[in-house]
Design goal:
70% helix, 7 helices, mainly alpha, 191 residues
Length: 191
């Protein structure tokens, strides 16, 4: 009703929708231009997505490296704790219960970082060459009795994937009885 002040449709403007099939030549040009702009914007979104994915992967890799580096830094900043840890690794029966607990927790913490890195590598977030670095970190401890004390006590607290990964490394050490460098120079290294 044009006389009703509360009528929201009383703008004085009316629009008649075109009948289907009555597209004017100017409308065709507008439709083509609109579709081209949509394609260009989709290409732009795709480029942005790729750039953001690379930025996320780089950030994740830096975070993983920083976490592991922080573990090592904290470890070596305390000489007394470092000595107790090294004593545990080489002769676990020679340390006090408190030193044993701290050493096992330090190894547990490191393995959580490495497990996370392995997971991210498996998801394609981190470079697949990271597996060699992770393998070397674990493999280097396989000659130490303390590693086996830790592993037997804590292995059930990790993911199945991580347990299998470490168990495969342990088995490769037993089967090959080779040093670390030989393991990774072999063409059939751990996958």
């Amino acid at each position: 009703d044009p006389d009703d002040p509360d009528d929201p449709d009383d703008s004085g403007f009316s629009y008649t929708w075109p009948v289907y099939g009555s597209i004017l030549p100017g409308d065709i040009l507008s439709i083509i231009l609109f579709n081209i702009l949509i394609v260009i914007s989709l290409i732009f979104v795709s480029i942005q997505y790729q750039n953001n994915s690379l930025a996320l992967q780089t950030s994740t890799a830096n975070s993983v490296n920083a976490n592991i580096a922080d573990w090592y830094t904290a470890f070596f900043e305390n000489a007394e704790a470092s000595e107790a840890f090294m004593k545990f690794v080489s002769a676990p029966e020679s340390v006090t219960p408190s030193e044993r607990f701290r050493a096992i927790m330090r190894l547990h913490s490191l393995n959580l970082h490495l497990q996370n890195a392995l997971y991210l590598e498996g998801k394609g977030v981190l470079d697949e060459n990271l597996r060699k670095t992770i393998s070397m970190a674990v493999y280097s401890g396989l000659g130490s009795p303390g590693f086996y004390v830790f592993w037997e006590q804590r292995k059930d607290m990790y993911t199945e994937e991580w347990r299998n990964f470490v168990e495969d490394l342990i088995q490769s050490k037993k089967d090959r009885n080779e040093n670390l460098e030989q393991l990774f120079n072999d063409n059939d290294s751990i996958n």
